[in-house]
Design a protein that fits this description.
Radius of gyration of chain A: 20 Å
Mean pLDDT of chain A: 85
Number of helices of chain B: 10
CATH superfamily of the largest domain in chain B: Response regulator
Order of helices and strands of chain B: HEEEEEHEHEHEHHEHEHHHEEE
Mean pLDDT of chain B: 92
Low-confidence stretches of chain B: none
Number of strands of chain A: 1
Oligomer: heterodimer
Largest sheet of chain B: 5 strands, mixed, barrel
Number of strands of chain B: 13
Low-confidence stretches of chain A: 1-5
CATH architecture of the largest domain in chain B: 3-Layer(aba) Sandwich
Largest sheet of chain A: none
Shape of chain A: elongated
Structural class of chain A: mainly alpha
Chain lengths: ~70, ~375
Amino acid sequence: MSETSSKDKTVQGKLTELSELVGWFQGASFKLEDALGKFKQAEALAEEIEKDLTKLKNDIKIVKKKFDSED
Amino acid sequence: MDEVLLSVSDFVALTNQTLEYAYPVVQVEGEVAEFKVIQNKWVSFKLKDDGAIVSCFTGLFQMRIPLEDGMKVIVIASPRLNNKGFFTLNLKAVKPVGEGSIKKGFELLKAKLEKEGLFAPERKRMLPRVPTRIAVVASTESAGYADFVKIINERWGGLDVEVAHTQVQGIPAPDQMIRAIRYFNSLEVLPEVLVIIRGGGSAEDLSTFNDEPLVRAIAESRIPTLVGVGHEVDHTLADMVSDVRAATPTNAAQILVPDKNEIIRSARAQANSVGYLLTQAIDNYSRQTKENLQVAFQRIQQKLDDTFDQLGVLRVVVAQLNPENVLKRGYALIRGDQKVGSVIEIETFKTSIKAEVQDVRNK
């Protein structure tokens, strides 16, 4: 798991990182000393995911090629 | 014309020229009879109704759906008189008409493709959970396409969607869709999913999606396919052969991408669950620390109690050894030399006496 959440990551990457953070809290490598930092990271990721998903628009293009006859 | 003398060949050529001019293409509806496949290359049958019968002829490769005697069809054909004097309809296309014939054609082709294993579950490929590059084959003027676009825009963002506009019903539709499927499959960077959609329609409209070459093109696609044709109750061979079947174009959009609102809710819930886990961990640590302290206090208390107990016992022993207690019981303490004439000191509990020793004897 990467320690810093990157703004360049895709939504999918951020979702994976968030799931990994939840896993860390439930797993054997949990350390109270690191937990607050990880919690802040998870909160920031959830916020970024929401922002990304809200602002992203789909790019729909109609193919110029005509399909009514063989070229 | 009655004064012109024609050879037989010229007559046939002239007749064909006239037919070509007057009826370049005709559509004729009738019932199939005497259906035959010749040398696995040619197809011939008779088209009949109650009053007449006409021969039909075509190449096997032009047959888009299996035929059987008794099926009602519309043929699109050019009328021709051949060199042997037989009048035929040279077929360009055949399509079953009427619910019974459409169903029959569907069942025949389904059985054929099933035998080849085209519908086998092991052929089905998974679609990516969140694709980014999507190819769509649809009529961009259709309500089904509008529904699809509306739903994907509501559900997800950041998709790169390329749409091939084709007809989705009528004779040209299957070939147009096949060309579109091949176009997407020939791209240097393949889309991650190929979506083929069409809204509801009559059995005849939807029979486009039971066209054998189209069904095979979908089966051969290198790109995983998602087909949503008609309504929930409609089943076509195109959706049966696809990797994933959607009940409708709207359902295709729902299958294709997750709902961003659900993802946002889930991300928030995950972050909250992390907060809860953190609080729980702090509570656990705090409880554990309290318990440890309590155990430590209990042990110290125990040790102190034990020590006090020991001290009590020692006090009793010490008290028992105190000479005053012996004097209290009536004994006396004698100090001084035990020889005749010596002055000795006798101490009782209450008195102190000086006395002279008059006699000393051994016992």
